[in-house]
Amino acid sequence: MKFKVFIVLLFAGLGFYTFWNFGQGSVQEVKVTTVTNAWVRASVGPNAAGFATIVTDSDLSLVDVEVLGEPISERIELHTHIHEGDVMKMQRVTQFDLKKAKVFSLKPGGDHVMFMRLKRELKEGDAPLKLRFKFQGQGDQTKDIDVIAPIQKSKK
Ligand SMILES: [Cu+2]
Predict the structure, then answer these.
(1) Fewer CB within 10 A of the end CB, N or C, for the chain?
(2) In this structure, how many other beta carbons lie within 10 angstroms of the beta carbon of residue 11?
(3) Cα separation, 7 vs 5, whole angstroms
């Protein structure tokens, strides 16, 4: 009787082990780094924020974003939001550390790209911007991904 219980537990354990490994395996199926849903908010002041959804194939850090073609701002920074009492404040960070296969969202009210001191107003309907997202991994590993980012008043 005790032996039967042991066998049942053994198979249950094997089943769980197989299921667990299957789960781990499917996480590794992200083979490329993708940047999607990129957009830049139409400007209402001297700065503008940019957003995107990023999924990476390994533990990478987003270290910089560039505008390809004509510069639109004096500087580009990576920003996060922090709570100071009841106030949400933007704070500059040097990089965003991304976890393999986990969705990382740059979104309004959260982490974002900030185009500081715009050289021109960004209006909805203007030509979309070409952005280069620059990633760094272990050692010297780097990766650039270019995307088209429309200028919008809000997420479409
Ligand atoms: Cu900001």
Answers:
(1) N
(2) 10
(3) 5
Q: How far is the CA of 19 from the centre of ligand 1 (A)?
A: 42
Q: Minimal CA–CA distance to 48: which of 115, 148, 123, 141?
A: 115
Distance in Å, CA 60 to ligand 1 centroid: 22
For 46-93, write each residue's pLDDT tens digit.
999 999 999 998 899 999 999 999 999 999 999 999 988 889 899 999
Q: What is the pTM of this model?
A: 0.79
**49 plus 87 within the same structural domain:** yes
* Same domain assignment for residues 100 and 123: yes
Residues 145 and 123 in one domain: yes
> Cα of 114 to ligand 1 centre, how many Å?
5
The domain total for the chain is 2
Cα–ligand 1 centroid distance for 45 (angstroms): 12
| Distance, CA of 106 to CA of 78 (rounded, Å) | 10
Find the domain containing 140 and state its range.
34-152
